[in-house]
Amino acid sequence: MKLLQTEKLTRAYGGVMAVNEVDFSAQEGLITGLIGPNGAGKTTLFNNMTGLDIPTEGKVFFDEKEITGFPSHKIARLGIARTFQNIRLFKEMSVIENVMIGRHFMTGESPHKKRLTNMFKSYFFMESEEALMLENAHKWLNFFDMDEFANEDAKNLPYGRQRELEIARALASNPKILFLDEPAAGMNPQETEHLMDTIRKIRDTGVTVVLIEHDMKLVMSICDNITVLNYGQKIAQGTPKEIKNNPLVIEAYLGKEE
Amino acid sequence: MVNFFLLILIYSGIYALMAIGQNLITGYTGMLSLCQAGFFAIGSYVTAILATSLGWSLWATLPVAALLSAMFGVLIGLPTLRLKGDYLAIATLGFGEIVRNVLNNWDSLTGGPMGIQRIPMATIFSFTINPYKKWAFLALVILIVVISYYLFERLGRSRMGRALQAIRDDEIAAASMGINVTKYKVWAFAIGASVAGIAGSLQSVFSLSVTPNSYTFMVSIMVLCMVVLGGMGNFAAVILGAFIIQLISYFPQLTGLSSVIPPQFKQILFGLILVVMMIWRPQGIIGVRSYRVGQKKSKAKGAK
After folding, report:
1. Residue B116 CA to chain centroid, in angstroms?
2. pTM for this predicted structure
3. What is the rounded average pLDDT of the residues A26-39?
4. Which one of B158, B162, B176 has the shortest CB-CB distance to A97?
5. Which chain B residue is nearest to residue A71, measuring alpha carbons?
């Protein structure tokens, strides 16, 4: 089943078509790769699907419901989580608090008339909700093997760990689909290897993954499906094997033979 | 002398309330707002007008002052939300000046530049809190500061406080984590404004008269100084900051040097404090955080 789908999605900045009538889709439970040369519109497409940007034209569907133009906090609440190309952590907050934020929107949403009683309840009963949030956050830190960093400031983590923390934070929101924008950027081969295992593990927990990546080894080995963009247009879609042999893709990356 | 020191303490308390509000807006949410003086003025005038023309007691006007300030907080918050950093500072600065100018010119309601005099003293169970006998008034101020401190500290540690900090650190990431950035920013603004309104109420029953000139831009700057000096994001620290700034601004009178030191010395010193703090200790004298999830308070460490 197509969990997420765009229909002729277009984003124009003035006369520049950053994304041009792209039909993108992500199958539920699989890892979908989004590749293309620099400036092909990959991140713009991501932003348009996650509400950071509003498409000029076209539609976005999630779970068969249209979500075009929803603000990003609403989209997040539907079960769409993402990470960013240039890491966006809450730098002054501790690692555990960063992960707890992931679950923020699931808490405190009591009906209005109960707000007042909840205020007092939380006071007298050790903030059970908070405890639950903390427990969940620890679960995800454990998943990434970073318990020891729980009370560190996020900004003090090593680079690779920061990337992982961003993924942990996204996963803490219990998403149905996870968008990763260049998760392996700046990682060394061992770290990349480790990341690939992690992404597979994430998929195995039932989360659909969509990722932008330049590391072809990573993309080709873990993606079930790949979509290729060039100059804002979709030029190919298929399994890694099909993509590898697609002449259009080769042309986009290596140029035409004279 | 004791009396004078009590006066400083009372003003420290009143300003501490504003600084607490400013801390929520600036220290927690990262919005550089410069209009605490505006909300302070609104609170003062609400109490002054209701008390003189309708005979309301302080206790009745206090919630009205807080609510009305909060309402203006929402009013100014909604349109300026999209602005960041210096742009927000300029827009809010404008709001503060608008409030002062309205007070200056709306003669029929506010008495214009003359302001409102003979505001009745606050009473509690038929006991008059006479501002000239400063102990009782100081007790009242301390009580309100302690209550606000407690509530704000709890707010800061709650999920809302966490969301505000997330917004401060990265708005886009916060939105993609499902946090309704607009809603929280408006709330922070409204809550920060309401406590400044309460400070205004206290001010008007303390000085027993209000004039627009007590609510100048300098007040907002002073409040900002208190937050920066004490430590952004730490409510106890900003209360200390408020005390230190008040002490400094009354320094000439306190030492009997008021004939030697010109009153402008205050402004110079505030500027100097801001610069020195920004260079050597941007996290303030106490440090940034008083609380961290999963850590005992005593173990919490300031920034390095």
Report:
1. 22
2. 0.88
3. 92
4. B162
5. B175
